[in-house]
């Protein structure tokens, strides 16, 4: 997965946009996405996330290991995308449900998976733990 961060100076918090990393298998080898499912379990659907107000009431709380969605490809493979950060689920991208191709065509913009708002006091440690683009490319070269 990949995270894009945005400083929101109005409310002094950081939001994290969860996307597929450039090296994700779904973005390699010409795979075709057949479906995206935000239904995590019988009792939990990320589509049921209803957020309101400045304090983001009603947002589902996510841990680092919380699944966001499951993505199936034409070769029968299924990939679970995890939050990878603790925070509140602000939004899921419903546009990828009707047009899964944008997940592959524009993974870092319109093809994002979800938006997560970490706790303000945790946002600095999250940022410090991220790789720079150069560090990420070095990790890929070692694979």
How does this model look, in words?
- The chain is α+β, with helices and mostly antiparallel strands and 143 residues long.
- The protein has one domain: OB fold (Dihydrolipoamide Acetyltransferase, E2P), CATH 2.40.50.
- It is built from four helices and ten strands, in the order βββββββββααβαα.
- The strands form three sheets. The chain has a five-stranded antiparallel sheet, covered by helices on one side. It has a three-stranded antiparallel sheet with strand order 3-7-8.
- The longest helix has 10 residues, at 133-142.
- The radius of gyration is 15 Å and the shape is globular.
- The model is unreliable at 5-12 (pLDDT under 50).
Assign an overall shape.
globular
Total number of strands: 10
Q: How much strand content do the residues show? A: 25-35%
Please summarize the sheet with the most strands: 5 strands, antiparallel
CATH topology: OB fold (Dihydrolipoamide Acetyltransferase, E2P)
Mean pLDDT across the residues is 84
Task: Report Rg.
Answer: 15 Å
Pfam families: GCV_H (PF01597)
GO molecular function: actin filament binding; actin monomer binding
Subcellular location: Cell projection, Dendrite; Cell projection, Growth cone; Cell projection, Lamellipodium; Nucleus speckle
Keywords: Cell projection, Nucleus
Topology:
Blueprint lengths: L1 E7 L4 E7 L13 E5 L1 E3 L2 E2 L15 E2 L4 E7 L4 E5 L4 E6 L2 H4 L2 H5 L8 E4 L2 H9 L4 H10 L1
Antiparallel strand pairs: 1-2, 2-10, 3-7, 4-5, 6-9, 7-8, 9-10
């Amino acid at each position: 997965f990949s995270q894009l961060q945005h400083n929101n100076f109005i409310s002094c918090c950081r939001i994290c946009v969860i996307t597929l990393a450039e090296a994700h298998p779904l973005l390699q080898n010409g795979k075709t996405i057949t479906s995206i499912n935000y239904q995590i379990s019988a009792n939990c659907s990320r589509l049921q996330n209803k957020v309101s107000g400045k304090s983001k009431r009603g947002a589902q709380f996510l841990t680092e290991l919380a699944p966001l969605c499951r993505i199936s490809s034409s070769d029968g493979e299924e990939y679970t995308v995890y939050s990878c950060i603790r925070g509140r689920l602000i939004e899921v991208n419903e546009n990828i449900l009707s047009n899964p191709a944008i997940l592959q065509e524009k993974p870092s913009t319109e093809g994002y998976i979800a938006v997560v708002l970490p706790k303000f006091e945790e946002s600095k440690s999250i940022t410090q733990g991220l790789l720079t683009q150069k560090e990420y490319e070095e990790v890929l070269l070692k694979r």
